[in-house]
Amino acid sequence: MTPPKTIGILGGMGPYATISFYQKILDLSGATKDWEHCRTVIDVNTHIPSRSRHYLYHEASPVPAMIQSCKCLENYPVDFIVIPCNSASHYIHEIQSSIETPIINIMEITVQKLLQHYPLAKNISVLGGAITYYAKTYKPYLENNGFNYLHHSEPLQRKAEEIIEKIKLNTLTSKIELDLNLLLSQLHKEQRFDVLIFGCTEFGCLHNIDSDISIIDSSLALAQYAINYANGYI
User: Fold this and answer.
1) Which domains, ranges and CATH numbers included, belong to the chain?
2) pLDDT grade for 9, boundaries at 50, 70 and 90
């Protein structure tokens, strides 16, 4: 019997999203004993320069630090790497070209999950950080799979980024959850989408999302894929 693969996680973007992501891996594993969980190596590299500030203001690139962390994971060694950060995944091709260990693309996996759960959906909205919004990072993945990518207004995007920043501070109050639920309602009223993608793993830290909207959580999709891939199910 082939032993399970070792998961490498490049985390720290942000750190609470990394904790939430690993919690999902534990919760979804189906393990009943410690040794049944996937072996996982995590680098919570909080010193990686801001992805958004590099994209928006041409500040220091996060790529060298992400490559360095991925090489450390590769040398551990791990069998594959996941990056639970949609903004960081904007740079995934640059990083992958510098290492041999495969990096799983969160956007590809999320759209695969969308296809599995909502194959008849057409109009898809994506709620995420600045890079996800302004670079329209999900657009090619959605359109290549027959979906229409919807782009919401900047005022709603500013509200999304304010909520993301509060989650990054771990201020997970009922007020934040109410603000997000209100934003989801406003977003749906503006776009009338079929499905919404949570294109920021910070949203995965929240647990009380009271909405009838169909949502695909990129953090959850990546966690489930990592477990399945590690155990040889895919």
Assistant:
1) 7-105+221-230 (3.40.50.1860), 107-218 (3.40.50.1860)
2) very high
How many whole angstroms separate alpha carbon 52 and alpha carbon 99? 23
Of the pLDDT bands very low, low, confident and very high (cuts 50, 70, 90), residue 194 is very high
With a CB cutoff of 8 Å and minimum separation 6, the contacts of 132 are 86, 87, 90, 126, 138, 199, 200
The reported pLDDT for the residue numbered 185 is 96
Which tens digit of pLDDT belongs to each residue from 95-126?
A: 999 999 999 999 999 999 999 999 999 999 99
- Report the pLDDT value the prediction gives residue 3, as an integer from 0 to 100: 87
When pLDDT is averaged across residues 141-159 and rounded to a whole number, the result is: 99
- Whether the Cβ atoms of residue 76 and residue 42 lie closer than 8 Å to each other: no
